[in-house]
Amino acid sequence: MAEADRSYRYRLAVLDELWTHGVHPTDHTRPELVHEFVSDLYRHQLRRLRQRLMRREFPKKDYAAQVITLRTRYRLISIPAVEWLEQEVSI
Question: Does residue 36 belong to any structural domain of this protein?
C-alpha cells in the first residue's frame, strides 16, 4: 500500500489533546508528522517562555514551575507517535 493511500485511526484521547493545540489531523496524516509538528509547537512555547523570563515578566524562581506546566500541556510528545493510533485488529 502506498504511503498516500494509508489510513490512520488516532485514539480519541489523542485527538482531544491535539485539538487543544489547534491540531486537526486527517485519517491520512502520518502520526510522525503530527508528532513533529506538536514538538515544534512545544519548542516554540519554550522559547517564548524563555524570552518572557529574559524580559523579567516573572521571577526566575518561577521559571522551572512554568516549564513543568508547559511540559504537562504537551505531554503527547513524550508518547511515541505509533502509540497515538488505535490498535489494528488482524483477522
Answer: yes
Overall number of domains in the chain? 1
Per-residue pLDDT of the chain (91 residues; tens, 9 = 90+): 556 678 999 999 999 999 999 999 999 999 999 999 999 999 999 999 999 999 999 999 999 999 999 999 999 999 999 999 997 644 4
The answer to the question of residue 4 being in a domain is: no
Residue 79 near residue 44, CB atoms below 8 Å: no
- From residue 25, how far is each of 7, 34, 89 by CA, in Å? 11, 7, 22
Cell, residue 10: 488516532
